[in-house]
Amino acid sequence: MTDPLRVLVVEDEWLIAEDIAACLRDSGHQVIGPAPSVAAALRLIGENPVDVALLDVQLHGETSLAIAEELKTRHIPFACLTGFGPRDVPSTFANARFVRKPADQAAILRALAELVPTS
């Protein structure tokens, strides 16, 4: 088994956030959050070590661009959670890894493995 990852979950839909968190915990990873807003996510990033993030693109009418920029500054890889296709999201996310919602455990774990490959 690989080392557990500290995964920041940024998702404003409570049920989806809890499903993702449960999937991560069941797979042995530590969940940071879930954060339902940009402000909450930025606070969690500042207060916790984070290895990788799963980031909802749209959060209650605001985009998560500020979160993506902070993650990039800290060299923390992330995947975008979205119900939209990659062409429908802001260009800041153009080269991001996308996980289509609703995501199942296999899709989430595959994204994590691509973002943080094991040696």
Provide an overview of this structure.
One of its GO terms (biological process) is phosphorelay signal transduction system. The modification 4-aspartylphosphate is found at residue 56. InterPro entries: Bact_response_regulator (IPR050595), CheY-like_superfamily (IPR011006), Sig_transdc_resp-reg_receiver (IPR001789). This is Response regulator receiver domain-containing protein. Keywords: Phosphoprotein. It is a single chain. This protein is an alpha/beta fold and 119 residues long. It has a single domain, classed as Rossmann fold (3-Layer(aba) Sandwich), CATH 3.40.50.2300. The chain is 36% helix and 24% strand. It has four helices and seven strands. It has a five-stranded parallel sheet, sandwiched between helices. It has a two-stranded antiparallel sheet with strand order 4-5. Helix 2 runs parallel beside helix 3 (65-73). The radius of gyration is 13 Å and the shape is globular. The termini are close together. The mean pLDDT is 88.
